[in-house]
Amino acid sequence: MKSVVVFCGSRFGTKEIYRHAAQKLGRELAEREVTLVYGGGHVGLMGAVAEACLDAGGKVIGVIPQFMVERELGYGACSQLEVVDSMHTRKARMAELADGFIAMPGGFGTFDELFEILTWGQIGLHEKPVGLLNTADYFVPLRAMVAQAVNEGFVKESDAAKLLCANESHDLLALLQQKPSSSAGEWWKT
Predict the structure, then answer these.
(1) CA angle, residues 61, 29, 135, in degrees to nearest 5
(2) Quick one: which of 87, 73, 76 has its CA closest to 44?
(3) pLDDT per residue as tens digits for the range 21-68
(4) Could you read off the pLDDT of 71-114 as tens digits, one per residue?
(5) How far is the C-alpha of 93 from the C-alpha of 95, rounded, in Å?
(6) How far does Cα 106 stand from its chain's mean position?
(7) Residue 124 contacts by C-beta under 8 Å, 6 or more apart in sequence?
(8) Which of 32, 34, 66, 172 is most buried by its number of CB atoms within 10 A?
(9) Residue 104 has what DSSP assignment?
(10) Is residue 103 a contact partner of residue 113, using CB atoms and an 8 Å limit?
(11) 190 neighbors 161 (Cβ within 8 angstroms)
(12) pLDDT at position 190, please?
């Protein structure tokens, strides 16, 4: 895996552990020589993961819409900052640049990005791995919602199995680099 998109909050959240997890992930990507692709902002967890990756000698590609640059949200220190015309273009470009995807804690934007990329995988637009960095059990309710969708027949088990999850960045990166298999689990049944 040469590059990974990280979807995460433009805020830090209420727990310091979220910031620490973002910084740890950024450092780990740099150490593994995996390019970070992200939303191009300098605020919240987005800024923390990018700054940590850069500080550790990593490569960071930010993709940000023009209207956000105008609000002074763009992170000029990125190795490469691409300014695009819309949020839709941003998501498509990030997906184009990525070999895999990680969602960290975040809000509506993070959920939007995560579910759009899962949907694209479901309909065959990509076969790239998608994982949740489950810092402080943040994604436990989301996983319960997906389990409910599987159990009620709205999501195929094979599609749910593609959503990987780990509590630590090194474990999640290891999962993302493995070839997909049914041993990824039937986590919705536990």
Answers:
(1) 105
(2) 73
(3) 999 999 999 999 999 999 999 999 999 999 999 999 999 999 999 998
(4) 878 888 999 999 999 999 999 999 999 999 999 999 999 999 99
(5) 5
(6) 10
(7) none
(8) 172
(9) -
(10) yes
(11) no
(12) 54
**What are residue 106's phi and psi, to 5 degrees?**
-175, -170
Token pair 């990525």 is at which residue?
98
Q: Which of 150, 101, 149 is nearest to 126 (CA)?
A: 101
Q: Is 11 exposed, middle or buried (0-12, 13-18, 19+ CB in 10 A)?
A: middle
If you search the block for the tokens 């309909």, which residue do you land on? 123
Q: In what order do the strands lie in the sheet with 60-65?
A: 80-84, 60-65, 35-38, 3-7, 101-103, 130-133, 163-166
Dist. CA 70–CA 86, nearest whole Å: 13
Name residue, tokens 């990509």: 126
